[in-house]
């Protein structure tokens, strides 16, 4: 699929298999979400721009590199929260902004209930975080919000995606790249990804 990047890294494949298992307890599930998020973000940020600056080593001075662009993390509440720590381990200066969406169980459409964005964006690149790209409604709605807010570069970082969700996002926002650990087979009649891993929020927070 165009503009979809599925990780081929062995560590991602290994951790994803453990994440899927029905026997994985919430504590381990959260650890795996955090670790996979960090690995996927490593791949999603390969094109970030750099500035040069002078570094003094114990032996001499040299030219080093520093991130030029300011990064914003936008976890879709609530399951996206579990991905933040893994990315903060790599980019501790990244800002985190929250957008709350829930899926109406009858229509499967997203309903926005919380938005904590400042008046103007202070970042040049936003990473939308959500473990599951199912129908694509929440991701697409979040992109709508960020574009209205004025963000020019947006990327989606998830763990598992369904073809239906990827198609929905690309029909509405073909410019937004999608980074995933895997693309699964399909959605069931309730909008859950098959084979998937169940409800990522319930499994992280022990509420299933």
Index terms:
208 residues, alpha/beta, 15 strands
Estimated share of beta-strand residues: 25-35%
What's the shape? globular
Q: Total number of helical segments?
A: 6
Structural class by SSE content: alpha/beta
Our measurement of the CA-to-CA distance between the termini, rounded to an integer number of angstroms, reads 33 Å
The whole-number mean of residue pLDDT values reads 90
SSE order: EHHEEEHEEEEEHEEHEEEEH
Overall helicity: 25-40%
Topology, number of strands: 15
For the record, the CATH architecture stands as 3-Layer(aba) Sandwich
Q: What value does the Rg take, in angstroms?
A: 18 Å
CATH fold name? Rossmann fold
Whole-number total of structural domains: 1
CATH class categorisation: Alpha Beta
Ranges where pLDDT stays below 50 over 5 or more residues in a row are none
Give the biggest sheet. Answer: 8 strands, mixed
